[in-house]
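Task 17 of the worksheet. Students: predict the tertiary structure of the chain below and write it out as structure tokens. Keep your answer in the requested format; marks are given for formatting as well as content.
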Amino acid sequence: MSINASQLDRKVTFQRVEKVVDSFNEEVETWSDLATVWARRRDASDSQKIEMLAAGQVGSFRVSRFTVRSSTLARSVTPVDRLLHDGVVWQINGVKELDEGRHRFIEITASRDADNG
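Model answer:
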């Protein structure tokens, strides 16, 4: 299935953790926005959720795939980063380039706690 720009109908924000020094001169981690981009969201099937349970991720969660336009920033996103969508934090589980032509689209698999949000 081919993807076109009109299918990128959701805004997502990539965040990366930074270490900063607080007023007590202690190093703390804080999340900073990298970029807000348009994405397509597709919820994963139940069989994909079962695979995640088998991998040790226990609990009530939702898994989705977010497709974004490829860019230097999008290609730099890793599972250490996170994604915000509709005010909810999503943990990034995987990032891959889609077979839609070289450097056209990136697919990000992410999960979140289904009980919170």
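Marker's comment: The chain is about 10% helix and 50% strand. The beta strands are 10-21, 27-43, 61-69, 82-85, 88-97, 105-113.
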